[in-house]
Amino acid sequence: MANTVSDQILNAELRLYNTWWTTGKVKEGLLKEYKRNQYYSTSKSFNHEIRRVVVLSGLRRVGKTTIVYQIINDLLQSGVSPEKILYFSLDRSAVREAGIDEIIRYYRNNISDSEEFYLFIDEIQKDSGWAPKIKSLYDIYPSLRAVCTGSASSKIEKNLDESGEGRWILIKVSTLSFREYCELKGVKKDIEIDNPFELHKLSKPEQNRIFSKLSDLNLLFMNYMQIGGFPELIGTADLEYALNILGKDVIDKATQDIQEAHKIRNPEDLRRLFVYLCIHSSEIINIQSVSKDLEGISRDSIETYIKYLEEANLINVSRPADLGGKKPLKAQNKIYVSDYCIRNAVVLTSDIFADETELGHAIEATALKHIKDYYDAKSSLYKVGYAKNPANKEIDIVITYNGKSIQYVEAKMRNNSVIHDDDAIVNNGMKEIPGYVVTKDMDDFGLSDRKETQLYRVPAQAFFYLIG
User: If you compute the radius of gyration of the chain from its CA atoms, what whole number of angstroms results?
Assistant: First the structure.
């Protein structure tokens, strides 16, 4: 197909964003001083002697492009010629119309023909055939280093799998953890824990010291639970404005991306389902019941739309896990918003701390997010789901490794909450590994024997800080 975008337009588009070609530096305002964990992971993989294309995947507005600009700035600071660095975004209509191959052709003919160059592409999933194109560039140019970003995780992972292993490093970028939120607010605690699920192994004085150090985070914790982990929103005290911006810039754009990518005939059905899932976040979803509640949307469409929403990183799907070697009785999933502020933006909850039920759902969703992010960074062999025993008692969060349960977690946010002997985390608890119970109050922590197992209670704000 003939290219419909002129070289003049391509030149204007590329020079608009690659300002370092003339100034020698990244445009003021694009660089952020704070560097997230994923920046360090990206930098290590990008510069490693074992050459790989780095792919950053995550919801819009979580900071993927900021990481890209930080890596570009590192290159410029190290003395790399500015013309050897090419950045473009497939969000731009003219760029998307021209396509990756044509942009590389123009760049190589008009900007730099060096065998050594650095390529950065935003919203890579906008080109359905991007993976083989990048693979081809990787093979043609032995000195090429590249970072691509995308907003549809599952779709990106599928493309990487189909294009063959050995050329890609996938790094998932979620919304800010509570720890990152605190650090961006200028609060950093001198505490490092190798494994947040081994707090019970520390001495009692050491546990007291850690929780005492984290006891002053309550106000930050309350703000974080309301406004969430989108970096550009945390500086405002105007919650209503921030949630309105979130709805327009993140949620509306992400659902629009889904509509465009999958040619959805009835986008209003997708919107209705998403609102429904926000309202019922942290609940087990029965597809038949949802179809009945949302008249006019078939079960097949609901299942398909849930898949798309998960791909777009708007929701987390928690799938049933084996409990003590027993297969789950019913394969019904639990659905969570990927960051609870998304629900706040859709439902416009004024104060989640005024309602213990609402707070419980928020803490469970936030616990799942933190735990999922923690294990996603380790290995794809870790999975985070939930479980029910034959008595229909539920364990909120079950972490498995290669199919075997390694940790149970329960979120209990009511005042003086009690774990009963017939609760699944006790009845089906593991002998060697204490179940962790996320609690409301900072002085509610410690290990206790329960039947054939143990439970370790840990305050929510401390747990989220340590695992973040």
Answer: 23
192 and 257 together in one domain: yes
Q: How many distinct structural domains can be found in the chain?
A: 2
DSSP-derived letter for residue 458 is: E
Structural domain for 284, as ranges: 178-467
pLDDT digits 0-9 by tens, 355-386? 888 889 999 999 999 999 999 988 889 999 99
Q: What is the pLDDT of residues 52-82, one digit of tens each?
A: 999 999 988 899 999 999 999 999 999 999 9
pTM of the model: 0.91
138 & 285 share domain:
no
Token representation of residue 85: 């660095």
Number of alpha carbons in the 13 Å side-chain half-sphere of residue 461: 24
261 and 140 within one domain = no
167 with 208, same domain: the answer is no
Residues 6+ apart with CB under 8 A from 98: 3, 5, 10, 106
Give the position of tokens 């490693």.
Answer: 48
Instruction: Give the DSSP H or E segment for 464.
Output: helix 460-467
Q: Which strands sit side by side in the sheet containing 168-172, from one edge to the other?
A: 85-89, 118-122, 145-150, 53-57, 168-172
